[in-house]
């Protein structure tokens, strides 16, 4: 078997072919776009039937990509475009997400709750990472699971992954198993209202601190009350604002992360571009412009939607680089890690609600 016919592996970093022109990238990109179209169609069908997309297009795309990869190994003609979609398009999506965030949400939440949210995110990341490592998950996958649970699920995983150099299989496994728990959270979290004797306001805080995505917060709180929905959405938005600082922190920490199955990598010469990747700079610039009112709603909404579309395309590309047999080997440990981290987050959130005396 020649070099050109060698199957794609999940252990290799997803890098586009050096010097590949736009026409060389097109076949692989079109495959990813086709999968994206199917995934978004499935999500639209969910919304019509159930009012809320319990399984988002992002998750559907990565699962479809894995399914396609199980039946067909992309050849050399498609690899550069798939690699470009998985890396460069994902980085562009992270940049554009900055336009959806306003720092005014921090001020609106109040200093006590703000401090509690920041503390909850930091403590959850640290404790979740510890749980994952105790279950023998690789360091990068442990970070993805921890950030996904602590901040905003799939979006956090997608944003942190390129900074720490995560493998396709780590990203796919983290997103797939986190997505399952996310759906269960939406369905089961309202049970805490009677079980923990929570008020509508307290339940809104709990939902905002624990549910992964903003649409899922709505799905988990709308059946309870309008107050829960308003409070949950606000807390969730403040929690999402932690994504920028966390990604920036991991861009520094990544230099000391252990290689898969090996010792810690020796830090090379520090450069500004390695310390702060271009897409994180772009994210922070757009978030600042949005906070100053220089990006109006009319412009922010299309940018956010385009970022979401690019993210789905990237997830399709990541799925196309994943061998399902590898996912099967790590599935049990990832499920245990995600579940343990999520239970920990719920516990921390309940303690915070009681400690702050939230009515």
UniProtKB/TrEMBL annotation:
Coiled coil segments of this chain: none
Membrane-crossing residue ranges in chain numbering: 20-42, 54-72, 92-110, 117-136, 142-164, 171-193, 205-226, 238-257, 277-295, 307-328, 334-353
Keywords linked to the UniProt accession: Cell membrane, Membrane, Transmembrane, Transmembrane helix
The keyword Transmembrane is annotated on this UniProt entry: yes
Cell location: Cell membrane
Family: Belongs to the UPF0324 family.
PANTHER family (alphabetical): INNER MEMBRANE PROTEIN YEIH-RELATED, UPF0324 INNER MEMBRANE PROTEIN YEIH
Name of the protein: Sulfate exporter family transporter
Organism: Methylobacterium cerastii
């Amino acid at each position: 078997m020649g070099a050109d016919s060698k199957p794609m592996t999940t252990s290799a970093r997803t890098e586009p072919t050096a010097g590949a022109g736009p026409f060389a990238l097109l076949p692989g990109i079109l495959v990813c776009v086709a999968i994206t179209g199917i995934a978004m169609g499935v999500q639209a069908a969910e919304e019509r039937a159930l009012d809320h997309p319990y399984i988002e297009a992002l998750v559907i795309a990565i699962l479809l990509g894995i399914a396609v990869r199980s039946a067909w190994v992309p050849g050399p003609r498609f690899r550069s475009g798939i690699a470009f979609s998985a890396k460069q398009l994902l980085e562009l999506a992270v940049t554009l997400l900055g336009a959806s965030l306003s720092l005014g949400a921090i001020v609106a939440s109040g200093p006590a709750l703000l401090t509690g949210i920041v503390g909850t995110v930091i403590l959850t990341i640290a404790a979740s990472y510890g749980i994952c490592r105790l279950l023998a998950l690789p360091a990068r996958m442990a970070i993805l699971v921890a950030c996904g649970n602590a901040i905003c699920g799939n979006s956090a995983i997608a944003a942190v992954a390129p900074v720490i150099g995560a493998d396709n299989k780590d990203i796919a496994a983290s997103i797939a198993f986190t997505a399952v728990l996310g759906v269960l959270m939406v369905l089961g979290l309202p049970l805490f209202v009677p079980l923990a004797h929570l008020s509508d306001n307290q339940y809104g805080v709990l939902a905002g601190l624990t549910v992964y995505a903003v649409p899922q917060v709505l799905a988990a709180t709308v059946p309870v009350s309008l107050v829960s929905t308003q409070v949950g959405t606000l807390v969730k938005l403040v929690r999402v604002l932690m994504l920028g600082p966390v990604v920036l922190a991991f861009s520094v920490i990544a230099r000391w992360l252990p290689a898969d199955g090996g010792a810690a990598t020796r830090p090379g010469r520090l450069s500004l571009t390695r310390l702060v990747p271009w897409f994180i700079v772009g994210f922070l610039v757009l978030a600042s412009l949005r906070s100053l009112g220089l990006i109006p709603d009319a412009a922010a909404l299309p940018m956010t939607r385009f970022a979401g579309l690019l993210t789905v395309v990237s997830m399709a590309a990541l799925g196309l680089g994943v061998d399902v047999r590898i996912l099967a080997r790590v599935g049990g440990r990832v499920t245990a890690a995600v579940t343990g981290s999520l239970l920990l987050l719920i516990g921390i959130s309940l303690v915070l609600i009681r400690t702050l005396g939230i009515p």
